[in-house]
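Slides due. Your pick:
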Amino acid sequence: MQKRRLLIGLMSALVLVAALSVSPIMAQSPVEVSFWHAMSGNNGKVVTDLVAKYNASQTAVHVTEQNKGNYNETLNAVIQAAGQGQGPDIAQIFDLGTPLAVDSGFFIPAETAFSADQITAIKADVLAPVLNYFTIGGKLNSIPWNNSTPLFYYNKDMFTAAGLDPEKPPATWQELETDCEKIKAANAAPYCISMQVYGWYFEQWMALQGQELANNGNGRADRATETNITSAPAKNIMTFWKDLNDKGYWTYTGKLHDNQGANQIFISKQAAMIVESTGALNTFKTGADTSGFQLGTGFFPTNGDVDRDGVIIGGASLWIGAGHPAEETKGATDFIMWLMAPEQMTVWHKGTGYLPITKSSQDALTAEGYFTANPGTKTAIDQLAAAKVDSATAGALMGAFPQIRDIMEQTIQTITSGEDIDATLADAKSKADAAIADYNSRLTTPDATPEATAAS
């Protein structure tokens, strides 16, 4: 019996020792941080690789990334999950989703989640036009990450065949039409310009003319209540687009928002020019090599009768989810700060084509001669640097923005099909303003839910 008691005592002691020895290990288990995003294909692989690199670089935090579909699908998934208290620590939300993200209350403003020193560092490093978009009411709500602007691409060989200077892309609509006339006269290409029907271009051309898309300072001084899509700048855009169509200069697939189809028209040498996102540069470089032509880049052309204001930032930013333990929030902010460092930002830019949006990453790329070897990327950066920082280039904040972009794409197609510009824009404004009013009314309706707003 005494021997049995001794054995039990020894086993109890061993269990206690084991428990004590395990406790420190358990205490050192990494904080789990969830990251939902909309990156797929090649861009998704770059995200996976970066997250794996971060996890391997330290043991305090472990990030689990998950693709939730395209931008709209990711936004809806995040809002619905957050409404049930199951949202991610970090969410990638596209630019048009910014008002909904703010209004939902499901996120912590970046200036609250990050330390004062971290915010100071971010603001000192991120380019001013980029900060301008994501700053609302003087406060940075999310951290810019995958960002782009529109860019002009052209076939230098076709320019040469038409007697044009292959090193001088058109800077204005007027120059573009003059170049198109020469390209068509020389039979240098079946069409002059390929361009998808995309509301983003309309928004960019409004900003480039210094015109706000919505009232109340583009929805930044106060909540937007109506659009400015019957303004003179809006009519200028539609007149230009219709003119390109009527003269046989412009072609597209006939589908709305079909960038792949428009891109293929240009790559297959059916058109001498195209406008697309800066993120398409790698696609066009590969396509030009495959099809056998020299690729050129230039600023997104604008109305030559008006002083150039600037382009708007597109893409998405990273938001910190509310309602998570403090250690998860800190882990999320540490991961984002790591992503913003030049070592990662340069990898992100090279791997995806999104702009290097920090001064430190641009300095690093310059030092290694990257811009000399990749002049198209420098064009995009110079264009962004030339943009004025004002309410027009900050971009509009409208809760119903996704619907309004759809309305404008249908409007472009209707006008280029021959319908009256004034009447069609008036109809579009009526629909867009009604969408804004509907969204705004939900914010004061007791039964309104973020899920319903996101799904509309």
User: Anything to note?
Assistant: Residues 31-147+315-372 form a domain with the D-Maltodextrin-Binding Protein; domain 2 fold (CATH 3.40.190.10). Residues 2-27 form the longest helix (26 residues). Residues 1-26, 445-456 have pLDDT under 50 and may be disordered. The first strand starts at residue 31 and ends at 37.
